[in-house]
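Cross-check.
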Amino acid sequence: ERRKYSRNSVDIVLDIYARGKVVSRARGLMTDISLGGAKIETLAEFQKDDVLIVELDRSDGKPLTLQGLILHVLHGDRLSTYGIRFTKLGLFGRFKVQKFIKATLAKRQR
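Predicted model, tokenized:
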């Protein structure tokens, strides 16, 4: 499988929002991130093609808010894993994600 962007293993707690769903807000754990998307684990149940808004805490105190389309779903006994592709990023958004990834990896190496 060829990927456009390299994945970076992370453990980041985040807030997940989904409009029009029974569970409209949930907490989750991002386990990997790239410029193109992320893998998220949560107790909340979503479906393929749902659009999620994820909010990550940055070191400057301002949240990084990203929108993603669910491409892959794996429902476990309690925990579900979702592969999302970031949408509506634009050039500035990609810059913010790249900066977030670099800061997260640098913090982990300390």
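The mean pLDDT is 89. The first strand starts at residue 8 and ends at 17. Passed to J.P. for a second look.
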